[in-house]
Write a structure and sequence with these properties.
This protein is 51% helix and 16% strand. It is α+β, with helices and mostly antiparallel strands. It has two domains: 156 residues, 2-Layer Sandwich (Beta Polymerase, domain 2); 82 residues, no CATH class. A hairpin with a 3-residue loop joins strand 3 and strand 4.
Length: 238
Amino acid sequence: MAAEAGHREMGDNVAVGEDPQPQQVADLYFEVWEGQGDVDDDMFLRVLGEAAEAIESLGIPYVLMGGMVSRAAGRPRDTHDIDFLVRPDEAGAALEALRSAGFDTRKTEPQWLYKAVKEGVLVDVLFRATGDVLLDDEMVERAKRRDFGGHEMLAMSVEDLIIIKALSHQEHTARHWFDALALLSNQEVDWDYLVRRARRRGARRVLSLLLYGQSIDVLVPDRAVHDLYDVIYQADKD
């Protein structure tokens, strides 16, 4: 019954088990972000647990990322969706796992993002994050199991999340920049790992974040700044 109810919420014209039309997914997406599709915390966490369980049931490597992990790491802010990062070649399987668990699904952006909805909760299945960041073995190994309202799942490491937050910063998404600064200031950061990962993607953006952090008295070690500076500008000299 739960699965049927989840499908019917997409609209009266959507049959149980069928993919909704793109506009139906888009309509619900905007309802959620405009606050019209808000759900209570208990339901949100239950759907989060069901989504993680569905993906894990097939042994698909993943990490939870985004606002939920920021909040768990001590950055209090509202979030209206759930973000999972999977490998590109397993995104279809992850989406099918969610579909089998009663989610309405759509391959919304075939280059980087699929979406699923259940009981008004939006789940993003990302397989190419901002800055062309892909899930890899090291990212999965560094992820930690965290508890979210009684549901345990793999959450992205603080360092990888800082990099993605820095890369995601734009004028209309300034919250990502300040999320990253908050994580730098209130979490125990493995600076060697942060620098090593930033060398692959986003070295200049992360360097600017670290310098900005120092300018507002966040305790960023000089060696992390120097290491990234050398990576960028020594490479330019070579």
